[in-house]
Amino acid sequence: MTRPLNIHQSNFELHPSGALYWKEQSMLLISDVHLGKVSHFRKYGAAVPQKAIAANFRLLDSTLQDFLPGTVCFLGDLFHSHLNSEWELFREWVSRTSAEIILVAGNHDIISPLKYEALDIKVVPELLIGQFLLTHHPEEREGFFNFAGHIHPAVRICGEGRQSMRLPCFFKSPRQMILPAFGTFTGMHTLEQKNDNEVFAIAEDQVIKL
Amino acid sequence: MAISKTKQDKELYTIAENWFRQQQWKPFPFQTKAWKAFLEGKHGLLNAPTGSGKTYALWFPIVLQYLKDNPDYQKKHPKGLKAVWITPLRALSLEIKQSAERVIRDLGTPLTVGIRSGDTSVKERARQKKDMPDLLITTPESLQLLLASKGYDKQFRNCSAIVVDEWHELLGTKRGVQIELGLSRLKTVAPRLRIWGISATIGNLEQAREVLLGPGSEALMNSVLIRANIPKKIRVQSIIPEKMDNFPWRGHLGLHLMEDVMPIIDRSRTTLLFTNTRGQCEIWYQRLLEKHPELAGLMAMHHGSIGKETRIWVEEAIRDERLKAVVCTSSLDLGVDFAPVETVVQIGGPKGVARFMQRAGRSGHRPGQESVIYFLPTHALELVEASALKAAVATQTVEDRLPFLYSFDVLLQYLTTLAVSDGFKPAEIFPEVRSTFCFQDLPEEQWQWLLNFLVMGSQSLQSYDEYKKVEVEDGVFKVTNRGVAMRHRLQIGTIVGDAQISVKYQKGGYIGTIEESFISKLTPGDVFTFAGRTLEFIRVKEMQAMVRNSKAKSTKTPSWMGGRLTLTSQMSELLREALYTAGEPAGQQSEEIRALESLFKRQRKESIVPKPSEFLIETFKTRDGYHHLFYPFEGRFVHEAMGSLLSYRISLLSPITFSLAFNDYGFELLSDQPVDMQQVLDNDLFTTKYMHEDLQNSLNSTEMARRKFRDIAVISGMVFTGYPNKGIKMKHLQSNSQLLFDVFRDYEPDNLLFQQAFRETFEHQLEEGRLRIALERIAGQQVVWKACKQPTPLSFPIITDGLREKLSSEKLADRIQRMIAKLQK
């Protein structure tokens, strides 16, 4: 179940996978997938289950299926490490994906842009579309609304009876939206909600505004 | 032949007895028994308390054996390792070395003694590798490291003895498993090896011997259990507040009674004040000094996070009688003879009789002298515990130490260790592994699973996989990758803590180490107390926290985990018995119970003080929500389990969310909705039927397993904890074990390590066996449910506990919606 959101007269859908769909642009924004991380760990002797690798691609497929976007824009940290065997799987995934793919490079993206270009993927440091600025690291720039990743935001909710829980979330301030990490083998960082923040928590298959 | 041998042995005893005479000592019977058994080639377990001369009971026969084997020792001294002495605390190694050297020197032998531990320099280690000392004192971890070096079998070949000191401390831990595995290997490579353990009194001494020597093993058949039987008089004295009315119902620091400690300190040469946590230790030291500046220079602090130099200084100062008082933690529990210590004060419940008696034994260290220990309660109900402790000491009721079973994480680490050194052949190692207590009857399939895990990182070979750890060459399992080998060596061990950060002055000067989780909460400029100093945090640089002295009034004290121990079953029984005397005439009560009369009166206003036949339940509402309290008096682990079980069963009746709190007396289910207690009773929710299944289904057991998995992931080598002082650089390899746990849960739930986390939860944390017995006991009791208007004295320490577990049967989204709705009201 997605949740609609309007920012500066543009229409967006928040998806419980952590992806964000931009209707007018037919563009799907996905941040911090960290592909290759499982293989990287395995290469260094930590036996992370291999099935977790396939899960990332399955999740990508099902999310794309929900929107059928014209463009998929990754907001950085698409690959966690140097080139490893997961690149092959990624290449296969790209070849069966019809959408145009753009990568806004993040700090983890150390694989050569040439490798991406060979797959017809554009690698850019940032993307400007109208009043929107797409980056990996959150950034404030005069006159723009920023979409970013990097933080892996989470929020803590407290209730009566001393209840509390921590959930991944979309974290919005007046001029910025930080996307949660999309990947299956990534962590979270808890942010504190201030007055002018809007937080959309992911609770299983729902996105709930707090 | 046989006759001359005994004759020779007799001459050897004479050497030992003469030495004792020269010191003007007389050997204890347990010492001569140990000499004799050792020289007869027997293995064994020696049960002797600290400070009884246990070290000489085993150093002597080791040296005598050498004299026997090498009559020409002065001309022809054969080089190489002859005996290994394992101690759980490296701080003790120096003391042990001095004892050994004294014997060696006085007998005029050319034997050398060396220490190898985490503190040993690289240079010294390299020297040892070329030229091993004759006698080596080491830790369980360093022993494993020796097994990780090439050609270890040659180094151990002529080793004739291995002594595991303080075996009771290792037994119920994974370090014990490490020892079991190490010994299984050494038995093969060193055929003349004699295995000896030294243990303080624990409930299961016979089992301790079996675990050490291997069930059904030849070594066990040919072994002895020697008991020192040195009577020790211990006097327990509770510090009872003069006015009970003002004494708090909750709390864990005990500062209210600080002034009562002063006359005790004044009366003794040296007093040790034992606290339960390092945080409490810091606060007591600080407050004592503030209130009594005259103690400056005469008082010190000792705990595990303080720099080694400081600790050694404190220990020497105690020995030289330069200190009136030392505030300490379990870091001073073991070893080391401190003659000037006349009095010991225990602040807060020690949670174990053995520990309490060991601490008491720190005073009056000379044989025959009475040990005095004062018990200082931190809140009113702890007086009940004091009363129970007295009974326990009087009857010598000591708890068991439960050995671990099937610790696959330790086994994987051990197998990797063997793969790093000379490689191993499974057909040779499997029988050795199965000969240990921990892995007895290990099924062949599970062994194969472990081998697959080491080689493929899974149970079947996958395309595109780059997993690299152990490789197989001609049937030999080996680590060939240097990076893998190096990372493994750095990580050998089974004690997993939070990452440690060194605390240093910016100008230079090392103070100690603090858990990273504490430092990460500080912002530059924050002031905290550590090692008795008030420090301002400047910044973190590599794995070091830079600080400077501060004059500010202190704001924060590091809180260290690990302070939460549980009562053992023996102790909880004594606790219940003590509490049940509340209803008896004052003449039959202990002074502690008598002192609680006003509290019991308050308790009886709204509720009852339960009798042996009663099981008390209390309910009431406060601002926090609806409280439901249950009092089984079984110790916190059982309460945690029972709380999970009960809350799970209630949550099946209707969707509800609980937070759970528990202490040694009872547990609480707190919710934002009231529970229909009549329904709980009518539905027989305390039954033992389906107990295991229900526990497994309760979310809480998953959360506990998640915490257990943290250690398992590190020990098994799944999570790399980083190069020393270079934590940051390896960050891309350091995953959080929480994440790993989730990945296993979602994609590989049949993984043996993942399942081990649950097994440990049920066996060691939830104590399923004890839970069953407790439920059966409750079934025979009459339930007394009291609906109260406000919190009762019994409930108070529980409901104010901030550390809580959670359990919910509501849909996540529903729960959030309701939480939001309540917030907006």
TrEMBL record, chain A:
One of its GO terms (molecular function) is ligase activity. Residues 28-121 form the Calcineurin-like phosphoesterase domain. Keywords: Ligase. It comes from the Bacteria. Gene3D superfamilies: 3.60.21.10. NCBIfam families: P_estr_lig_assc (TIGR04123). This is DNA ligase-associated metallophosphoesterase. It comes from Zeaxanthinibacter enoshimensis. The lineage of its organism: Bacteria, Pseudomonadati, Bacteroidota, Flavobacteriia, Flavobacteriales.
UniProtKB/TrEMBL annotation, chain B:
Keywords: ATP-binding, DNA damage, DNA repair, DNA-binding, Helicase, Hydrolase, Isomerase, Nucleotide-binding. The keyword Hydrolase applies. Residues 257-416 form the Helicase C-terminal domain. One of its GO terms (biological process) is DNA repair. Residues 35-220 form the Helicase ATP-binding domain. Gene3D superfamilies: P-loop containing nucleotide triphosphate hydrolases. The keyword Kinase does not apply. One of its GO terms (molecular function) is helicase activity. InterPro entries: ATP-dep_Helicase, DEAD/DEAH_box_helicase_dom, DEXH_lig_assoc, Helicase_ATP-bd, Helicase_C-like, Lhr-like, Lhr-like_DEAD/DEAH_assoc, Lhr_WH_dom. NCBIfam families: DEXH_lig_assoc. PANTHER family: ATP-DEPENDENT HELICASE LHR-RELATED-RELATED, LARGE ATP-DEPENDENT HELICASE-RELATED PROTEIN. Belongs to the Lhr helicase family. Lhr-Core subfamily. This is ATP-dependent Lhr-like helicase. The lineage of its organism: Bacteria, Pseudomonadati, Bacteroidota, Flavobacteriia, Flavobacteriales.
